[in-house]
Design a protein that fits this description.
By secondary structure, the chain is mostly loops. The chain contains 4 helices and 7 strands; from the N terminus they run ββαβββααβαβ. It has helices at 42-51, 128-137, 161-164, 188-192, and strands at 10-11, 27-32, 58-60, 67-69, 107-112, 168-171, 206-207.
């Protein structure tokens, strides 16, 4: 039985989500948040995304292995088609999240502390095995239909709807209806070929607002809008 909340991840619940998922092949989208993991924490990144109502599902620090989960996997995220970085611009008008956020029976959005200029696969990627094991439990295929995301400052390839519909893993720069540039030229084979059989069992998620919630395939896929705890 798969967990809607990733075991071992810090739970920092967003007050909004992207709504009900529409069905289709499950997929994972890797984004970079334009933040240096040596200076920005998972906690502060999650708080910024929640404050601006553009949460992804996970925020991951590949240097320390810290992981925060903002939304249950069975609800749509809001990061695709939105501003890519964490820069604070209080006066900007944010667009509505793109419709692709709701495509697929799962559309898991993973925001990595890093920059497309420096592919995060060059880091230690601590915690990756736990992330992959969780995604595997939801039967998301470890394939990259659109191939390797383009390196930073190279022209992006056409964002194919046909490839997107196949499901699997994608960089944000490969998603239709999005202007995202990340995650840059990451090593996709290295990222998704890890053997997770040796992954240690992690504790249940720690929630910042009360008790952890575990949704299963038989449970409701609706959560209340909750405000994350103040720093």
């Amino acid at each position: 039985m798969a967990d809607a909340w990733m075991p071992g991840a810090r739970c920092i619940r967003a007050r909004v989500d992207g709504g009900q998922l529409g069905g289709g092949a499950p997929r994972v989208v890797w984004l970079t948040l334009g933040a240096d993991p040596r200076t920005v924490s998972v906690w502060s990144a999650a708080q910024r995304l929640n404050q601006e109502d553009r949460p992804c599902h996970l925020v991951w620090d590949p240097l320390t292995g810290d992981i925060a989960q903002l939304l249950p996997i069975v609800r749509a995220g809001c990061a695709l088609g939105m501003p890519e970085y964490l820069d604070y611009e209080p006066d900007r008008m944010l667009p509505r999240p793109a419709g692709v956020n709701r495509e697929g029976r799962l559309c898991v959005q993973i925001g990595v502390l890093g920059s497309p200029r420096e592919p995060f696969t060059s880091f230690q990627m601590i915690g990756l095995a736990s992330i992959l094991a969780w995604l595997d439990s939801w039967q998301i295929p470890r394939r990259w239909p659109a191939g390797q995301p383009v390196p930073y400052r190279q022209l992006t390839r056409p964002r194919s709807r046909a490839l997107w519909a196949r499901g699997g893993h994608f960089g944000a720069s490969q998603v239709p209806e999005c202007d995202n540039l990340g995650p840059g030229g990451i090593d996709i084979e290295y990222l998704t070929s890890m053997d997770v059989s040796l992954t240690r069992e992690l504790r249940d998620p720690i929630c910042t607002n009360g008790s952890p919630i575990r949704l299963t395939a038989r449970a409701t896929d609706t959560i209340s809008s909750l405000t994350a705890a103040a720093v």
